[in-house]
């Protein structure tokens, strides 16, 4: 049970406080309700590039990092398809430094041309490091394009290509900031050795004077139901054939999301999971296989991916996966197997919640979803899932018409 | 109106009185030492068994790593599947890891399940059989994984720089190959297992919210095993650093980045320079605000990240700079690294920067010793390196008091380009 207090400033900023007096540290986490899904299809990668620019100086403070480091703190940030999160941890005594820094960059950035010029290059190197200069690095770009026809999940957070990043202009940066980086579009979570009264005082002092701005309303095209299987074949300079498959699944707050989490655990979670035992150990078709889902807010994807053992064919591999999927559709999981995935979920949640940083991050995300209390209801939602529901959702998801297959061949 | 141009007052972390929670010490009936940290609010546990079973002790490449990896792959009573199923049923994570001197088996679990799990770990350590078919699958899959990794410039660079520093025949410099996997045999694993695990030297580290009966439970599962009876063989592995200092490798003609590694030998943690060099390393390339990051990423945009670190080896170590930079700016990046070394040698570090780094290091250290797993990890590190109990406080004192002159002298001693291996892999 993660206890917290919540209040809202006049400008719409939601503030959550999670007190934990067993640590000497404090975490200040600011989550903005903007991600790659909010980008213009012709200017992709922008939400992430923007995250870099948030460290390029704000209106009154020329450098974000230095004062924080001086106060004994460290920070980082990440961008997903759904959101952008900034977090710092520092000795609790110096927490006001974080309020000062975070509120100034919510107020306004410095919009430095020089910062944009440098960070464009940095992000291009990041793109190369992770997606161009790595074998199979483009697989998920291709898969997303295959699986999504209209929803902006069709591109990755890093962007569709280097050109989009290279073309980013300072006016794009400004309009993006004023559209998305407003108090009403953000959640502030403060966790650790703090009191709610003190956080209230500091939040009013530093964030209170920021203009409310206009609340951004998201209108995203809904992905139409897929009605036929899709296939893509790629030949590349990689040593092994690889297979990627995805299926559309429910969105974050739907029941199916929780059931899907269990399904991926049964199929791909650990050395006793079904796909590993059958395809890697018994049949030796794959040298590795993973099954997981994207954890997306809107309707996401369940994925299975693996590299084939040399000498085995794509047809054999696909057929073996299909057979495993037929089993979970045909036969109810046993009580033991169901109990196992529930135990695993309980344990996963316990370990995840160990640090104040992770707790702050989760609280912010659930608040963004609409209700931070959801964080404390997660476990019971998983515990309530039945074998019949797993079967029912497996049938729904693993419908061939809902599937996308990327056959990634090694070019001889 | 508040004045946003003025930073709120801070308390200098340098003035903080940091305390590393001491461990409790026990011994099991067979003399196995147990280091325990009882702390934390969550009902979770970490139990780590450390064996002196790293590749320092192997007679043939990969025997140590493979023995360690296959500890979960079959005993006289249980198949690999049964073992995984048992731990996963309780939501526990049983991980193994092979280092140079040591190899570990570590369990993360909910405290309430620990009694179901410890006896099976005892079984793994005495009754593992390393089935032939498990070894075959392992070889096949590891060779495939290696093939993929060899396409990555960073992976290739990490292997080669260690080879240059220590020599291929040194445990720190040796790496995998298809041939080495092919040559592995079951009997070698069994021998290594009996000698270095079942009859090996073992230390236990436990942390978390410890159940009252944790020591009796550990004793029941491990206290009767033949650990710590035989003394360890003494192997002397002198390093054989490469004569040639510069290497440029083209691993992939199409590569758009190069992995750059610059490295120089450095003494182990017992040397008086070690804690001081940690401070210099922070300034040089050890954190986001470091000289290398500020110049090469934040000013020039040559890379997504550039870091320096001092390796944590027990016997002898190295100071390493590593980055992946754009192919066209490879030379320019290396030039800037040397330029930053030169500045550290020629100019004393300014008061403001030194003050910032002290505060940063101590502030983050405070965060790093927060939580039972972090605390035991730090103690484990000190114990395995044979450091004194007050090492934490001594190195803290170094951070608080080291002068700009000392740092400059240190830069002149170590950060000399001609002492560095310079490797680029495209």
Automatic annotation (TrEMBL), chain A:
It comes from Ilyomonas limi. Belongs to the peptidase M16 family. Keywords: Hydrolase, Metalloprotease, Protease, Zinc. One of its GO terms (molecular function) is metallopeptidase activity. The keyword Cytoplasm does not apply. Pfam families: Peptidase_M16, Peptidase_M16_C. This is Insulinase family protein. Residues 14-129 form the Peptidase M16 N-terminal domain. Residues 169-344 form the Peptidase M16 C-terminal domain. GO terms for biological process: proteolysis.
From TrEMBL, chain B:
One of its GO terms (molecular function) is metal ion binding. Residues 46-153 form the Peptidase M16 N-terminal domain. Pfam families: Peptidase_M16 (PF00675), Peptidase_M16_C (PF05193). InterPro entries: Metalloenz_LuxS/M16, MPP/UQCRC_Complex, Pept_M16_N, Peptidase_M16_C. Gene3D superfamilies: Metalloenzyme, LuxS/M16 peptidase-like. This is Insulinase family protein. Residues 185-359 form the Peptidase M16 C-terminal domain. It comes from Ilyomonas limi.
